[in-house]
Amino acid sequence: MAKLLIIDDEKAIRGALRDILEYEGYTIEEASDGEQGLELIKQNDYDVVLCDIRMPKIEGLDLLLRVTEMGKATQFIMISAFGNLETAVEATKRGAFDFISKPPDLNRLLVTVKNAVERGKLIVETKVLKKKVYRLNEIVGQSSAIKRVIDTADRVGPTEARVLITGPNGSGKEMVAKRLHERSNRANMPLIEVNCAAIPSELIESELFGHEKGSFTSAIKQRIGKFEQADGGTLFLDEIGDMSLSAQSKVLRALQEHKITRVGGDKEIKINVRVFAATNKNLPLEIAEGRFREDLYHRLNVIPIHVPPLAQRRDDIPLLVEKFLQDVATEYGQPAKAVEDEAMKYLQSLPWTGNVRELRNVVERLVIMCNEVITYEDAKLFAMPVV
C-alpha cells in the first residue's frame, strides 16, 4: 500500500489524519514541523505528503519548493485553516497536487489522496518507460567516427540550428535525429517523423502541409499536416532527397517564412518548428542533375552530421552486439546470451552492407536460433553475409 507522510505542527490534526488514512490501509509517518519533514523526505520515498502551510522552522510552501527541486515523484497535498484562492494558486504553481482547507471534508480527502497516489505511480512509470526508450534509441560506440557524431549532436541539440544528417541506409540517421531532439529545448514537445521516400509524390504535400476538405477527390475531411503536428517541437524529414521539387519549394517557403498553407486552402498558418533532415543521397550531385533545390540544401545544411557506415567503425561491433543481445532478451523476456570471442571476431569481419540495421537483425536471428552461448559455427551458419 502507499506510504504517506503527514507534516503538521498540531498533534491532534496529525492523529486524526493518521486514524482516517490508516483505516483505509495506507502506511503513515508523521513530522511535527517542516525541518523534520524535510529530513524524513530525504531519507525515504513517500507516495504522498499531506503538508500544513503554516509551520515552524520551514513553512509548507517553502518545503514544497525544496522537495520539487530534489526531483522526487512525491505528490504534495497542502492543508491549511487559513486557505484562500491566492494560497491555493501559489501552492499549485509550486507543484502541489491539490489544496484542502481545514477541517478537511472526509470524502474529498480520501479521493484526493487516492488520485495523488495514482498520479505519482504514473510519473514513476513514465520515467521508467523513458529510460527504456532512451536505451532503445541510444547511439552506441567508442570509435572516433561515432564519437564525432555524438559530440556534434550533443553540442548542436540545445540550439535552434537546422541539421542535415547524411549516411547510408541502416547506419542510424534516425537515432541521431532522436538524440538531437532529446537534447534540445523542445524535448518535451513532439518529434514528428516523415519518411519522404515512403510517400507517393502526389501525396507528399498533403502529408506535410495538410489539406482542406474537398481540395481533391479523396479529401473527404480536413487533414492536419506534419508541420502543424510538430508545432513547438521538431520535424524530422527522413530521406529528403526523394522529395518532389514541388514539395521542396513549399518546404523552403515554410523554413523561410515560418508559415504554411494547407493544400486547397488560402489561409496562412504560422508554425514554430525546428527541422532535421536526413538522406542517403549525394545532394550536391542531385543539385547538379536538377533533382534537388540548391537553396533548400543550404537552408537545411546549417550543421552537417555524417553517420559512417558500420564497415568504417568495426571496433563498435562488440558494443552493438552486446546492446542488441540485451534488447532482444528484454523483448523476448529471457536471459541475455553470450558470444564466443571467435564468433565476435567473425562478426567484425563481415561487410555489413546493411549497416547497423542488418547487424541488429542478425543478432536477433542468433538469439532465436542458438543456445545460451553463440559459437563461431553459429555465427558462420546464421549471419549469412551478403557479398
General description of the model:
This protein is an alpha/beta fold. The protein has helices at residues 11-23, 34-43, 60-70, 85-93, 106-137, 144-156, 173-182, 204-209, 226-229, 245-257, 283-288, 294-300, 317-332, 341-349, 355-369, 376-382; strands at 3-7, 27-31, 48-52, 75-80, 98-101, 163-166, 191-195, 234-238, 259-261, 268-270, 274-279, 303-306, 338-339, 373-374. The protein folds into 3 domains: 3-134, Response regulator (Rossmann fold, 3-Layer(aba) Sandwich); 154-308, P-loop containing nucleotide triphosphate hydrolases (Rossmann fold, 3-Layer(aba) Sandwich), CATH 3.40.50.300; 311-382, Helicase, Ruva Protein, domain 3. It has a 5-stranded parallel sheet with strand order 2-1-3-4-5, with helices on both faces. The longest helix has 32 residues, at 106-137. It is globular, with a radius of gyration of 28 Å. The model has no long low-confidence stretch (mean pLDDT 89). It comes from Arcicella rigui.
Output the keywords.
globular, five-stranded parallel sheet, single chain, alpha/beta, 47% helix, 387 residues, Helicase, Ruva Protein, domain 3, 3 domains, nucleotide-binding, Rossmann fold
CATH level-3 fold name of the largest domain: Rossmann fold
Count helical runs.
16
Task: Tell me the fraction of residues in β-strands, as a range.
Answer: 15-25%
Give the assembly state of these chains.
Answer: single chain
Shape, principal axes of CA atoms: globular
Q: Spell out the CATH superfamily of the largest domain.
A: P-loop containing nucleotide triphosphate hydrolases
